[in-house]
Amino acid sequence: SSKQVINFGAGPAKVPRQVLEQVKEELLDCGCGISVMELSHRSSEYAAINNRAIALYRELIGIPENYKILLMQGGGTGAFASVALNLMHRGEKADYILTGVWSTKAANEASKYLKVNHVFPKPEKFNAIPDQSTWNLDPEAAYVYYCDNETVNGVEFSFIPETKGVPLVCDMSSNIMTRKFDVSKFGVVIACAQKNLGPSGITAIIIREDLLGKPSPLCPQVFDYTLFTKENSLLNTPPTFIVYIFSLVLEWVKNQGGLVAMEANSKAKSELLYSVISDSQGFYSCPVAKDCRSRITVPFCLNAGPEADKQFLKEAQELGFLQLKGHRLVGGIRAAMYNALTLDEVKILVDFMKTFQERNP
Ligand code: PMP
Q1: Which of 33, 152, 161, 341 is most buried, by the most CB atoms less than 10 A from its CB?
Q2: CA separation for the pair 197, 243 (Å, rounded)
Q3: Nearest to 162 by CA among 136, 140, 189, 132
Q4: What is the reported pLDDT for 191?
Q5: Any idea what the Cα angle at residue 294 is, between residues 110 and 109, rounded to 5°?
Q6: Is the overall model pTM greater than 0.90, yes or no?
Q7: Closest Cα to atom 11 of ligand 1
Q8: Would you tell me how many other CB atoms lie within 10 Å of the CB of residue 202?
Q9: Is there an atom of ligand 1 within 6 Å of 99 CB?
Q10: 74 C-beta closer than 6 A to ligand 1
Q11: 312-351 burial, b if ≥16 CB within 10 A, otherwise e?
């Protein structure tokens, strides 16, 4: 149908139109007479897809040679466990920086394998990042873990934590590919794919070489970073069709101008949305402190209350704004603005927000 549809879903999220067109085009025949999904993962054709995906990830992010890139399964949640299982050789305890739902889940999962220390007491509401000078970092921790963009709470780091040599582990699931960052500051960077990297089904892991080689004896093979490095992410059957789409999304990012273009785009989109919220004279509000507001996943609500939120969401849905409802844990409204979402689409949303306000004084 020709009805306007704008997808603000937080994940699985919008995939660039051009990518979907290409997938459709190549669905029945990827150039060798059969579909990509029918191709052996041991074929030379698939090896090319796998290598291309990994090489593009390295190129776009600027990953140094002493880091390995792994494409694994198990989602972001799988990596909550695999990070601990692969790094616990460094010690029996790890530091966790809790800034929202996802870092909290990661800490709970890791606590099955090692002693988890909270760098600051778990806040009642996740809407700010306590000043770094107040953090209680343990110099003997196996690693320090944080989530760069809390998808549910809308809290994003504007700095890289200083850990004085302790390996830094970061979950960038919802903001990878949206800005340049200095990989050399990190031990491990994890990201599930279903936000900025394509459909769900793979988790991309970046790991510094010197941290490899000593997985816990209890680590399942499918979570073993050392084995995956040796096997070039082909230890067992990967989600081949998803890796293929992942590679097309990376190609698309490159054609758009890479991370510099993605960063400019997310800056423009988020500044526009936040300006409309702050110019609304209290009609709309965002619960997050200004210095850590996410450029990517923006939670907001109507100050008139949950009934007003409902009416807003109902009308938005009718106009084709999809998946704007806030996460079930926090309610309200959430606009996820990943790379595939255009500035024009955000303009249409803010126009609706303004007219909705005018109609409901
Ligand atoms: N980390 C972050 C920041 C997320 O947003 C999510 C999912 N929304 C996850 C981890 C968990 O990912 P998965 O559902 O693939 O396990």
Answers
A1: 341
A2: 10
A3: 132
A4: 98
A5: 10
A6: yes
A7: 76
A8: 26
A9: no
A10: no
A11: bbeebeebebebbbbbeebebbbbbbbbbbbeebbeebbe
Q: Which atom of ligand 1 is nearest to the CA of 75?
A: 15
Q: How far is the CA of 75 from the centre of ligand 1 (A)?
A: 7
Question: Where does residue 57 fall: left (phi above 0), alpha (psi -120 to 50 degrees), or beta otherwise?
Answer: alpha
340: CB partners within 8 A, 6+ apart:
13, 14, 15, 16, 17, 196
Q: Are 138 and 164 in contact (CB under 8 A)?
A: no
- First-to-final CA distance of the chain: 34
CA distance 296 to 267: 9
CA of 200 to the centre of ligand 1 (A): 10
Cα(152) to centroid(ligand 1), Å: 10
Q: Which residues are catalytic?
A: 102, 171, 195
Per-residue model confidence (pLDDT) at position 2: 66
AA identity, residue 278 = S
Residue 221 CB neighbour total at 10 angstroms: 11
Spans of the chain below 70 pLDDT: 1-2
Rounded CA gap, 95 and 203, in Å?
A: 22
Residue 11 in contact with ligand 1 by CB distance below 6 A: yes
> Does 192 sit in the ligand 1 pocket, CB within 6 Å?
yes
Q: 76 C-alpha to center of ligand 1: Å? A: 5
CA–CA separation, 64 vs 61, rounded Å? 9
Q: How many Å apart are CA 163 and CA 316, to the nearest integer?
A: 44
